[in-house]
Amino acid sequence: MHRIAADITIQWRSAMLRFALLHLPSREEAEDAVQDTLTALLQLDPASFDASQAKSYLFGILRNKISDRLRQKYRAPLSYDEAFEDDLDQIMFDPRGHWVDGVAPATWVNPQQQLQNDQFFIIVDLCVHKLPAKPARVFSMKEFLECEAEEICSTLGITKADYWQCMSRARKQLQLCLHQNWFEQERAP
After folding, report:
1. Confidence of residue 108 (pLDDT cuts 50, 70, 90)
2. Share in percent of the chain as helix, strand, coil (round to 5)
3. What band does 159 get if pLDDT is binned at 50, 70 and 90?
4. Core vs surface per residue 159-178: b (16+ CB within 10 A) or e
5. What Cα–Cα distance (Å) separates residue 31 from each residue in 13, 62, 156?
6. In principle, which of 14, 32, 58, 104 could form an S-S bond with 99, CB 3.0–4.6 Å?
7. Domain assignments of the chain as residue spans, ordered by start
8. Class of residue 139 by CB neighbours under 10 A (exposed 0-12, middle 13-18, buried 19+)
9. Whether pLDDT at 103 is above 80
10. Does domain 115-189 have CATH number 3.10.20.880?
11. 103 and 122 in contact (C-beta within 8 Å)?
12. What is the per-residue pLDDT for 189?
């Protein structure tokens, strides 16, 4: 496993560090998050590890390590009662536990097919890294780290208006970049 881990480290460490630097305030914290991720790789049972899934595994762990660090740094702890005080279950489900009409999630055609394409993710990564730092950080926290808007505003010290402006600009620039570098390429003969 140590040889496999060494190969994987060589292959993915710089991409992981770039991703961590986008979200964490210091290089040291980013390095620590990457190192924690690679340590988790070494703790795996070699028989259960599929090297072809290394990228998904590593970035999933890294995302959690970054989220943990951001939450620990910026979020005040909530009590159990505060965390679950909404009545979301009563809004979304009937007394038998079935979805209320009009609330159930829609069935998607098959979004996993395109999302599983490694080349697509390479282009997405390049497009995100072409964004200016602030919109890239906001977009990445929202879409990759799955943070809520309030948490992003609090973490980055920005207003809601600034958050929405960053998200709008990031989405527009990503749409243009993906169109030019991915979707147009698919249509070319």
Report:
1. very low
2. 75, 0, 25
3. very high
4. eeeebeebbebbeebbeebb
5. 10, 11, 20
6. 104
7. 1-76, 115-189
8. buried
9. no
10. no
11. no
12. 52
